[in-house]
Design a protein that fits this description.
4 helices; about 170 residues; mainly alpha; about 55% helix
């Protein structure tokens, strides 16, 4: 019987692809413990985390640099969406801060890797024309986080215990 060929797909060669699988695995482990009534967030998180993986694979399979970059940018947007979903899930007590922070570490790596990948495929900032203005100019201003205080009539909010454990 002939030996099977060891074939490696293009996306399997990318570290960012394997990091995206880490995110997907993390989301899968959260499924069983997800609170009842919060599945709308889980559904969105499953779709967004799967989109990260699949768009990396599609981009790696493209030959056109423009199309590669387009798929990698879609993956980048989905990773950013995952980060926001974890923030919302924390506010809805669907995940603990520990779970969100663990996911955030993976997502920070993913966003960094995808940003570098997009720039490398597009030729990087040094290859862009400096004569034309950017398509969407962004005004630079310092970031100041909003301070949100609950109205006095609200009861104080209890912090969720990490992984469903008892309070310390």
């Amino acid at each position: 019987m002939p030996q099977p060929r060891a074939v490696v797909m293009e996306h399997e060669k990318l570290n960012v692809y394997h990091k995206s699988l880490d995110l997907s695995s993390l989301v899968a482990t959260l499924c069983d413990a997800w609170p009842i009534g919060k599945h709308f967030l889980l559904d969105q998180l499953l779709r967004a985390s799967t989109s990260v993986v699949l768009n990396i694979a599609e981009g790696a399979g493209e030959h056109s640099p423009r199309e590669k970059a387009r798929f990698y940018r879609m993956s980048l947007r989905s990773a950013t969406e995952c980060s926001a979903i974890f923030d919302v899930a924390l506010r809805h007590s669907a995940v603990t801060d520990e779970q969100r922070m663990f996911a955030r570490e993976i997502l920070i790596d993913l966003v960094s890797m995808l940003t570098k990948l997009v720039l490398s495929v597009e030729g990087g900032p040094a290859h862009r024309s400096h004569s034309a203005p950017p398509a969407h100019p962004v005004q630079s201003r310092p970031f100041t986080p909003a301070r949100v205080l609950p109205p006095a009539s609200y009861p104080p909010r209890k912090s969720p215990e990490p992984f469903g454990g008892a309070p310390a």
